[in-house]
Amino acid sequence: MAENSVSIDGMTPHLTYPGISRNPLPVILTPNPQIDGTYIYSIANVPGTVASNTFMTLFNPVGSGKQVVVGGMFISTVAAAGTAATQPMRIHRISAAPTGGVLVAVADVFKFNTANPDPVSVLRTGNPTVVLGPPASNTPPPVTTGAGGGQFVHEVDPPTGTTVLLAPGEGVAINNSSGDTAQRWNISLAWAEV
After folding, report:
1. pTM
2. What confidence tens digit (pLDDT) does each residue in 19-47 have?
3. Which residues lie across from 57 on neighbouring strands?
4. Which of 9, 64, 143, 186 is the most buried (most CB within 10 A)?
5. CB contact at 8 A, 110 and 40
6. Dihedral over alpha carbons 117, 119, 125, 128 (to 10 degrees)
């Protein structure tokens, strides 16, 4: 029976590994050449509100020429005082550019590699006006009779083998439909642009 083999020029033929009779192929990790940049933005210790509040939006502008892949969202919460409000923090799809709120400066976005270009995605905080689409997650708030409670990190990731892809003109919003001023929210959103 014929044996298939691969020869790699320049690989040291006498290199061996314990318990392996043949040289394995080396594993070399390289960045995906299709990814222009990977980013994360984070807000901390933001008080809840009694009325609906959009804490953060990430929007891929029309004409950007990029696809945005949402990598994950990380939410933690704690209560500064007793609170009985039970509405969860949710991530929603949006299909129109948010307005108002606070536009996040590009310089405030964390780049996983400082050599990456500035992101084309537009971030807003401070309750921008937006039309919420379907929700995708539920992060419970702290419910407690005194300060404390909550104190966990909820990691929201797409199911294995899938991605949340934002074409130009699409985005996500992180919103709480009602809450309590005693709640404190920490939110981080990671994404890549290709």
Report:
1. 0.80
2. 545 555 555 555 566 889 999 999 999 99
3. 124, 173
4. 64
5. yes
6. 150
